[in-house]
Amino acid sequence: MITQIEKIKKTIEPLRQEIIHHKVYSAIKDIDDLKVFMQFHVYAVWDFMSLLKTLQSNLTCTSVPWFPKGTADTRYLINEIVAGEESDIDLNGIRKSHFELYLDAMKQCGANTSKIEVFTDVLKNTGDFDSAYLASETPKEAKDFVDFTFKVIESGKDYLQSAIFTFGREDLIPGMFISIINEMHKNFPDDISFFKYYIERHIEVDGDHHSHLAIQMTANLCKDNEQYWKEAEEAVINSLKQRIELWDGVYKQLTERTTTANSSYKKLADHL
Questions:
Q1: What ranges in 68-210 are assigned the alpha helix state H?
Q2: How far is CA 231 from the centre of its chain?
Q3: What's the maximum distance between 2 C-alpha atoms anywhere in the chain?
Q4: What CA–CA distance (Å, rounded) separates 144 from 146?
Q5: What's the pLDDT tens digit per position in 77-133?
């Protein structure tokens, strides 16, 4: 099983490097750029929680009457991850999910939360993704990202859900991005302290302890089934490609924003 894990890691390394070194990070110059990034990224934060709760539902008994389900080891792994992701603590020691932490960070720096809030409200009330996308004017790249995640969720295959959870999300924050955030925090501590905390918490909890638990969970689910491992690897590859497309969408909007700003500045200068 360890060799299968290593095989997946080796196969996806070029895609991981493409994500870690994506041009979107160098395009984030100021807080306004960060706001654009967050308004896309928040969809990935939200559907990560949906993926997590799907795994908990599939791997443990969440109904009444209760009966033992699966192995105790796997139940322990997913329940510990859920506890950390769904009820962590914020800067003030208040219990919140990582999604709620992210929304707080967006609001603190002035990022627009209306789209994601309309999206979740409509989806909660109707259960219809198309209506939620339309009402919230969800960016296409974010829509495609969420659609892929829910395609895996709806497959009912816990080993695929675990695989993209494990290899598609946990350790993709590059040092370059962290440096940008740290530099912004020096200049604007009252605007991005929540986001800085979220990033640091993500690295501390998700990228370290939870990643080890998730790897073990995936190994437990795939076991020695060659077909499972093959499908898992393919799903992870597609998941990483979706992340790249999401970042491409952010980069496109950032460059369009810069072009528009430069054009406006030129017009103003021409009139002076």
A1: 72-86, 98-109, 114-126, 129-136, 140-155, 158-167, 175-187, 189-201
A2: 21
A3: 76
A4: 6
A5: 899 989 988 999 999 999 999 999 999 999 999 999 999 999 999 999 999 999 999
